[in-house]
Amino acid sequence: MKILESEFLDMKEAQSYLSLKSHKTLYNWVSQGRINVYKMGRYNRFKVSDLDKMFKLKR
Question: In the chain, how many domains are there?
Answer without folding.
Answer: 1
